[in-house]
Amino acid sequence: MPDLAIARALHVLAVVLWIGGVGMVTTVLLPAIRRAYPADQRFPLFHGLEQRFAGQARFTTLLAGVSGFYMVWRLEAWDRFRAAGFWWMHAMVCVWLVFTLMLFVIEPLFLERQLARRAAVAPEATYRLVEWLHRILLLLSLVTVAGAVAGSQGIDLFDW
Ligand code: HEM
């Protein structure tokens, strides 16, 4: 039993640091840069500052994934993925997959360069796109956190 409690604690710590960081970037850093800097300086500045968080996010997504799959294995909960009522389990894996692909594959391989090139010719629109991508990811993540906290207590957030 203590191993399950440890895995749950590590899972929640990882999620707090990771999604909390996404919240900070989305609701504080991006709007502050938009207000304080002209369009052509925004993306390079944001990109430089976000690099440090990207390193942390790689570590916390890994930790959330390892602890999450460990709990599924320990709880023998694989069949939850076949039940619609466990939508929050699917949501956790989907959010995790999106961030993992973004952080480890899509961003380093081409998105980073693509956005930098786009920002050089259309800085205003590119910065707006970056802000909207962050807002959508944050909203999905927060709905998932709420669904998982309620769901792990046997309550469906959207069905009571
Ligand atoms: C590979 C991805 C993931 C897997 C396999 C996974 C798996 C799990 C499992 C098995 C539980 C315990 C459920 C229970 O007690 O019945 C759990 C809890 C939880 N997970 Fe995940 N998870 C993953 C990613 C995420 C992500 C991305 C988030 C946040 C966006 C998240 C947030 C939570 C929260 C808030 C809890 C509830 C903790 C509690 O109240 O005790 N998980 N997860």
Walk me through what this model shows.
With 160 residues, the chain is mainly α. It has one domain. Helix content is 84%, strand content 0%. The protein has four helices and no strands. The protein has helices spanning 2-36, 39-74, 87-121, 123-151. Helix 3 (87-121) packs antiparallel against helix 4. The model has no long low-confidence stretch (mean pLDDT 96). It binds protoporphyrin IX containing FE (HEM). Protoporphyrin IX containing FE binds at residues 8, 11-12, 15, 19, 64-65, 68-69, 71-72, 75, 77, 92-93, 95-96, 141, 144-145, 148-149, 152.
Task: Tell me briefly what this model is.
The chain is an all-alpha fold and 160 residues long. The chain has helices spanning 2-36, 39-74, 87-121, 123-151. Helices cover 84% and strands 0% of the residues.
Query: Radius of gyration from the CA trace?
Result: 18 Å
Largest sheet: none
Question: What is the CA–CA distance across the termini?
Answer: 30 Å
The outline comes out as elongated
Number of strands: 0
Beta-strand proportion: under 5%
Mean pLDDT reading = 96
Number of helices: 4
Poorly predicted sequence stretches spanning 5 or more consecutive residues: none
